[in-house]
Amino acid sequence: MFSKHKKKKSRRRRLTPSREPPAPENPPTESVGALKCVEGAPRRSRVIEVAGLQRDAAAITRLPRLSWKHFLRNLKVGEIDQVCLITTAVPLNSVKVEERLSRPKNAEPKLTREERFAAQSWKALRNSGNPVYDTAREFADIFPEKVSAELPADRGVRHKIDITPETKY
């Protein structure tokens, strides 16, 4: 027999971003000089008008939240007029950052590194009496002391890889 109970339709609740309180009629605006830098394009500077910048952390944290999903959707639709990025007021010194990142603390000292490189020089190889010296010296242009900006001389050797059908590697 049939049941007298009706099935309830499940309703999906649509999530909407929290709405910000109505803005005053004429929000205070501030002129900000901006430098737009797009990689591969010439640098262009322009002045933009920014409505009511928040200056303190308490005011910034009270601003309405917007998820990334809604942000991207609203940006594509054109509902977002401006986006402000909060950055540090102190400019970074890129030279100091590069120096700190280029040499880790546990790297070998400069003197030890120079000694190791000197032990691998042509002079050290010749003085060691190693029979490889003559063969290696024949290809000295491939192993130069300083790397040149151009390719070494062509020796007529060509490498070719033949891949046969139905092979994995």
UniProtKB/TrEMBL annotation:
* Basic residues bias: start-end ranges: 1-16
Question: Which superkingdom, per the lineage?
Answer: Eukaryota
Region annotation (Disordered) maps to 1-33
Name of the molecule in the record:
Polyprotein
Biological classification of the source: Eukaryota, Sar, Stramenopiles, Oomycota, Peronosporomycetes
